[in-house]
Design a protein that fits this description.
The protein is α/β, with parallel strands linked by helices and 270 residues long. Helices cover 41% and strands 19% of the residues. The chain has one domain (3-262): Vaccinia Virus protein VP39 (Rossmann fold), CATH 3.40.50. The chain has a seven-stranded mixed sheet, sandwiched between helices.
Length: 270
């Protein structure tokens, strides 16, 4: 074979390889694979300080001082109080679910006034750490609900569907897909009582590559894996049956907090 033919063959192979690489990059992975990758990723919080930081473990990474760690739950507890005021539910909340409680930064605050708390997670180490923080704070009404990553609906068999409040913050952006987030929102609606409230935070899609929803390579994209357009998630919640009450935006991190009600919920003017 002449050198010219060899060079042509090599260049053709390189072009084919480049095209195949680009095709692989856009072909979505199966959700079961992504879900299993997510479980492995978040379950590594037992020994991985980076995942502890992302899971809001007290004393790890950005949360090495108590003041920073306490600010997480304080902010969300204030939002919850505002939601109670808006819906005239103040003093009526006795139980709650947090989907993805991480290291317990939120629940340390909510445990001050709620009798029963369910923590749903795919990470056993995170649930254990959350429980440890609550028990050190002398709270014993915490119920761990460990679910298979590819079967979130299993939680229905473990929780009586009459809960007063649903919370999920800094979690939806880590879900394996938009459809998975919709499924979780439907489960939240199912588990809540006929007169209840919810506070759900998502990462919103602003049209940039950074915050666009992903469909593969979970380990590489876990921090910003799933996102929704702002109005898209509002419509999703409404179609499920929730009554959307308000949205609070945090543009510096593309966070959107949805204040939601279920049932015959009254709503005060903002």
């Amino acid at each position: 074979m002449t050198k010219k033919k060899t060079d042509t063959t090599f260049n053709n192979r390189m072009r084919i390889s480049s095209v195949l690489s680009k095709i692989i990059e856009i072909v979505p992975e199966k959700e079961d694979k992504i879900s299993n990758d997510a479980k492995k990723y978040w379950s590594s919080s037992q020994e991985n300080s980076t995942i502890q930081d992302l899971s809001h473990w007290r004393g790890s990474g950005r949360w090495c001082d108590d003041e920073s760690w306490n600010k997480i739950g304080k902010k969300h507890f204030f939002m919850y109080k505002k939601l109670c005021d808006l819906t005239e539910m103040t003093g009526q909340i006795r139980s709650m679910i947090e989907w993805g409680p991480g290291g317990g930064a939120n629940l340390i605050w909510f445990s001050k006034e709620l009798n029963k708390i369910y923590g749903i997670d795919i990470s056993s180490p995170n649930l254990d750490e959350c429980e440890r923080q609550l028990m050190e704070n002398e709270y014993f009404g915490f119920n761990k609900v460990l679910i298979p990553a590819n079967s979130p609906e299993d939680c229905v068999d473990l929780i009586k569907p009459d809960v007063d409040f649903f919370l999920s913050t800094a979690v939806y952006q880590h879900f394996p897909s938009k459809e998975y987030g919709i499924k979780v929102t439907k489960l939240a609606y199912k588990l809540l009582s006929n007169q209840s409230i919810a506070l759900i935070q998502i990462r919103y899609d602003d049209g940039s590559n950074r915050f666009a929803p992903k469909t593969r390579d979970y380990y590489q994209n876990a921090v910003n894996f799933t996102s929704y357009k702002i109005e898209e998630f509002w419509n999703i919640a409404n179609e499920i049956g929730f009554k959307p009450i308000a949205i609070y935006l945090k543009p510096e991190v593309n966070y959107a907090y949805y204040f939601l009600g279920k049932g015959d919920i009254k709503c005060q003017n903002l």
